[in-house]
Amino acid sequence: MRKGFTIIELLIVIAVISILIGIALPRFKGMQDEGNIAKAKGELRTLQAAVESYYIHNSNAYPSALSALTSETPLIVGAIPDDPFGTGSYGYLRGGTNNKYYVIYSVGPSGNGSATITDDAVVETSGASCIYASNAGQDAQP
Predict the structure, then answer these.
(1) Which of 103, 104, 105, 121: disulfide with 136, CB 3.0–4.6 Å?
(2) pTM of the full predicted structure?
(3) Where are the domains positioned within the chain?
(4) 3-state secondary structure 40-57
């Protein structure tokens, strides 16, 4: 009697391994998106604190762009982090009466999110997955 595996046995093992890999791969993508969402929310909270610090140190005026945070004295942030969803930097807009409100946003996992501020201080988002931080409205995230 020969010792070893038949071709059928090897094909069955390969098929089982392929099925397990097919089940596992989508789960890894979901975990990657969840990690990037958490990272974006944390970075948005940090940028929100930096914008508020800028406001305090600059005669109650919000910056015109996030890049202004890297050139202030005292230094507020060393560098503006990139949006983890691969679109470059986070979006930043001022709005409302006398530009006294701001919103910092990420495009989110779908890559098409954006945010604006109405004159009555309400943040409006577009896209299915926009993540934002703002001083406008009561239901500001994160």
Answers:
(1) 121
(2) 0.77
(3) 7-134
(4) HHHHHHHHHHHHHHHHHH
